[in-house]
Amino acid sequence: MLKIKSLSNDWGRFRLKDINLEVEKGEFLVILGPSGAGKTLLLESIAGFTIPDSGKILKAKEDITSYSPENRDIGFVYQDFALFPHLSVRQNIEFGIKDQENSKKRAKDLASFLGIDHLLDAAPLTLSGGEKQRVTLARALATEPGLMLFDEPLSSLDERIQEKMRKEIKNIHEQMNLTSIYVTHNQAEAMFLADRIAIMMEGEIVQVGEPENIFYGPINKQIAEFVGVENIYNGTITEKDDNLAKVNIGKKDIEVITETAEGKNVRIMIRPEEIFIGTEKDKNSKSARNQLELVIDDILDQGSLVRLELSNSIKLIAYVTRKSLSELDLEKGRKVYASFKASSVHTVER
Amino acid sequence: MKTEINKTVILFSIFSVILILYLLITIGNLIISQLVIDAGALWKTMWDSSVLKSIWISFSASFVSTAIAFLFGTPLAYFLARKNFPGKNFIESLIDVPVIIPHTVAGIALISVFGYNGLIGSPLEEIGIRFVDAFPGIVVAMLFVSIPFYINHVREGFESIDPKLENVARTLGESEWGTFRTITLPLAYRDVLAGSIMSWARGISEFGAVILITYYPMIAPVLIFERFRSFGLGASRPIAVVLILVSILIFVILRYLSRGWSLYAKD
User: Fold this and answer.
1) What confidence score (pLDDT) does residue B4 get?
2) What is the pTM assigned to this prediction?
């Protein structure tokens, strides 16, 4: 559907460096990255608001790199809505509809689909954030664009509405058979919406994959840190039997599943969510091949989950529910056992 | 703490009032003393055909110069607000030049270019368009001094419009021109109107640049100057009062009309 080939664009503060990216028809691709990574510039390049220094953008095999925005058949939804303040909601939605005869009906259908039909005669300034974003969606959908671009569309809404709108956008994408590229810095949003995620950092696409692959298999330390993998260690593979290997990370050996050969230096990452905390040593467990005896250094209440900072042979971050916190009677200074599967450890060669 | 603020407010108020009084006394004294000393002369002046003619020439010439500023200045203001191009700083400074140079200097410059032997005046004279001592001369002089007011006002108006609105309009199928027509210009309407009023008012108030290039036909300030020189204050003051009253009236009406556009307040 959309193919970006070696796209580069230097805007001084923001820049794109040799971007290669493909989106399939019907796909929901999320571009995830910290702010300042150049995500918006990438979207604006796709939309044609800026012409890239080099590289190509192909849409349905047609080279659209030098097309004007109005000839690209691409819809755009901005974070801060960008509703036309001098036009009513209805006029905003009808703005892009070329078929004058059916524009009234189409605007009305879209408005009722998005639950804003009672606002058609209102002025955009009078709407709430959630309503404004619905109008923006209706306006972009009205032209039935071949590709939808979303630039952090939920960031300026409050959290409660964010979750609702997130579901709605996913729903619209599926029901209307859209092809979507969605930019965000919010990991949860990406996880929820994406068919695939492209991680963008400092103007480059650094990793592309399905959400699980990204969150459980970040290919480098920056990505791991950005997507929230907190337990990262450097070590060396000391033993290997088939794909099951032992990685020495100093005072400890960690069992991992990896393709990397014996003797290689590796970096391992353990997602805190995959660590189980117990107060007694579990001798029967076969699958949790790693079991570490650690001491609780600190307990941090983070809402529904409680974050544990553990140390002894290594420092480790883990999460438990509030329920287990009280059931296991966990407190600072207490000795616990942290277990995790060899397959939960992600290994990258250094 | 509270008394601190009050002290500031009082001090600021005193300074403000002094400045306001300076304006009010100067303008008010002119009008009131004319009414008190010689109301009859004022009445007579109102129906003096040479006075009315000079005011008409002032207003119409300034209107034409504002129309030219609108036609040619709006695209330039848009470019300055939206695009980056080499020489932009130079052009921005150039636009401000008429504000800083003495208007007699502007007049000299204009007459050198638009005069009988001037770069532009000479070839246009051939085809029958004359600037010296003619209506077009008044227009070019007024245009020269009012351009900065129009451009700077309108440019600020365009700058205050979020470019994202234009971007979205493009994705919805509008061309660059269509976007300017349907989004940018309607949203900048107030600033365009305000810029036009400023430009028009500036044109009417111009004296120095105009008198050098066009003495006849007389604009109102030139007529006032001539009457003052020939017959003194008593003869010139009534015209000044009439000009002030008419200008204020029109200014108030335009200000009132442009207020209605506050609907377009930015999101």
Assistant:
1) 62
2) 0.77
Half-sphere exposure of A116 (CA within 13 A, CB side): 28
The two structure tokens encoding residue A145: 């664009």
Distance CA(B62)–CA(A327), nearest Å, equals 86
In which domain, by residue range, is A122 found?
Answer: 2-225
Tokens representing A37 are 């990574």
Residue A63's pLDDT is: 95
Nearest to B173 among A44, A81, A96 (CB): A96
Q: Which residue of B has its CA nearest to A136?
A: B168
- For chain B, the domains span 1-47, 48-258
CATH code assigned to B48-258: 1.10.3720.10
Task: Give the residue-averaged pLDDT of A313-321.
Answer: 88
Residues of A in contact with B183 (CB under 8 A): 84
Q: Look at residue A308 and tell me whether its pLDDT is greater than 70.
A: yes
Predicted complex ipTM exceeds 0.90: no
Q: Which residue, A183, A210, A225, sits at the end of a domain? A: A225
Question: How many domains are contained in chain A?
Answer: 2
Set of chain B residues whose Cβ sits within 8 Å of the Cβ of A146:
none
A33: which 2 tokens? 């990255």
CA neighbor of A135 nearest in space, from A152, A122, A151 = A122
B168, A70: Cβ pair inside 8 Å? Answer: no
Q: For position A24, which CATH number holds?
A: 3.40.50.300
- Partner residue facing A76 (CB), from B162, B171, B175: B171
Q: Are residues A251 and A239 in the same domain?
A: yes
